[in-house]
């Protein structure tokens, strides 16, 4: 046992729908890992009841002083927001984006992971080697929240709404540099930059220019610039050419859903919203939403949330434990313990228990 046992304080925000189910799964896996660590580390959980139900009671998605309370934690473990009773843009901006922006979590890392024993629309022969990661600019771009409604002007008499993207040189540079640094930690040192700069001639052209400038600092890393429509096709047709894919907020959001669907299900995809300077807590969450269609049935796939917990371990510097957890996930799918979205019959609890069992091996 280490002389000073590490105690990590984690804020859990399960929020809506299956968020609560998969966060509970992730918590029990992490607690099992801590219990097996011989006292080397432990997790101290505080749960916050924020989300759409809280909104129904208070008119806000989270407490007014929520960010102040969260900033004391080592990390935030998040479920999902969104419920039919609250307009989606209110639930998203009122909680998830408020935390992301409040804590300057400007890098969103979303690995696309192909697991053994999981069917994918890609041919089996091609899948074994596949493994790439989408790096999403998480602070500006198309989600800058810039614009307004009721502009008078050229509309044919009807309302005009304007939604602008914001690309700053600093914002582009930090995420692109982050992608190159990440590429250097991977077997394949390559960064693919994605824009639609032929049609979006200001912000995305700036992005392309910054990409070329930063690339010059990383002569050991292979690069390519691909338009987002072509990249969508490439995800399906030539994914073996990918390693790190860096893109703006909206483009990366769409591409990472495509990646997880290719891997077999949205329920598989993990993600980390990082404040790389570590001035503020980072947030770990599955990519999927609250899935109202299956919420409350105990059948949600917990693998995206558990994989996000593994990313949190990495963030804490517990990389060996993260590796163990990822191997336990692979052992579980390889053994055929699959939830409904992957064509199996295992419940959330059964998949979670199988992952915990596999940790012991
Ligand atoms: P968001 O806008 O928050 O991204 P969304 O509206 O895109 O959410 P999800 O809530 O992610 O959608 O659900 C999309 C589909 O994927 C639904 O059919 C849902 O049941 C399924 N799904 C999402 N997460 C899971 C999961 N963990 N396990 C099984 N199925 C899931
Ligand atoms: Mg979605």
Automatic annotation (TrEMBL):
InterPro entries: ICDH/IPMDH, IsoCit/isopropylmalate_DH_CS, IsoPropMal-DH-like_dom, TTC_DH
Catalytic activity: (R)-malate + NAD(+) = pyruvate + CO2 + NADH
Superkingdom field: Bacteria
Cofactor(s) this protein requires: Mn(2+); Mg(2+)
UniProtKB keywords: Manganese, Metal-binding, NAD, Oxidoreductase
Pfam family, any one: Iso_dh
EC number: 1.1.1.83
UniProt KW Metal-binding keyword: yes
Domain called Isopropylmalate dehydrogenase-like: residue spans: 9-355
GO terms, molecular function: D-malate dehydrogenase (decarboxylating) (NAD+) activity; magnesium ion binding; NAD binding
Family: Belongs to the isocitrate and isopropylmalate dehydrogenases family.
Protein name: D-malate dehydrogenase (decarboxylating)
Organism field: Allonocardiopsis opalescens
């Amino acid at each position: 046992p280490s002389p000073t046992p590490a105690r990590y304080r984690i804020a859990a925000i399960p929020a809506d729908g299956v968020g609560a189910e998969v966060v509970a799964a992730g918590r029990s896996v992490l607690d099992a890992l801590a219990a097996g660590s011989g006292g080397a580390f432990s997790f101290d959980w505080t749960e916050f009841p924020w989300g759409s139900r809280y909104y129904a009671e208070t008119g806000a998605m989270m407490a007014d002083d929520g960010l102040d309370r969260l900033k004391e934690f080592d990390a935030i473990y998040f479920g999902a927001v969104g419920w039919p009773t609250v307009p989606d843009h209110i639930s998203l901006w009122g909680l998830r984006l408020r935390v992301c922006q409040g804590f300057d979590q400007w890098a969103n890392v979303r690995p696309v992971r192909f697991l053994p024993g999981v069917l994918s629309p890609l041919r089996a022969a091609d899948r074994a080697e596949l493994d790439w990661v989408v790096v999403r600019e998480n602070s500006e771009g198309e989600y800058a929240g810039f614009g307004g409604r009721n502009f008078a002007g050229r509309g044919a008499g009807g309302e005009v709404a304007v939604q602008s993207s914001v690309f700053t040189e600093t914002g582009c540079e930090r995420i692109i540099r982050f992608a190159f640094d990440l590429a250097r930690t991977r077997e394949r040192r390559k960064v693919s930059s994605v824009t639609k700069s032929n049609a979006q001639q200001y912000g995305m052209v700036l992005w392309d220019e910054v990409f070329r400038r930063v690339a010059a600092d990383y002569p050991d890393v292979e690069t390519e610039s691909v338009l987002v429509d072509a990249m969508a096709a490439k995800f399906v047709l030539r994914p073996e050419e990918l390693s790190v894919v860096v893109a703006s907020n909206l483009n990366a959001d769409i591409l990472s859903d495509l990646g997880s669907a290719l891997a077999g299900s949205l329920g598989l995809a993990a993600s980390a919203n990082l404040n790389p300077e570590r001035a503020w807590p980072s947030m770990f969450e599955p990519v999927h939403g609250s899935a109202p269609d299956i919420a409350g049935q105990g059948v949600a796939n917990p693998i995206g949330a558990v994989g996000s917990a593994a990313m949190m371990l990495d963030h804490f510097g517990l990389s060996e434990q993260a590796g163990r957890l990822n191997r336990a996930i692979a052992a579980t799918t390889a053994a055929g313990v699959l939830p409904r979205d992957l064509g199996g019959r295992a419940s959330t609890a059964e998949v979670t228990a199988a992952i915990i069992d596999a940790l012991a091996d």
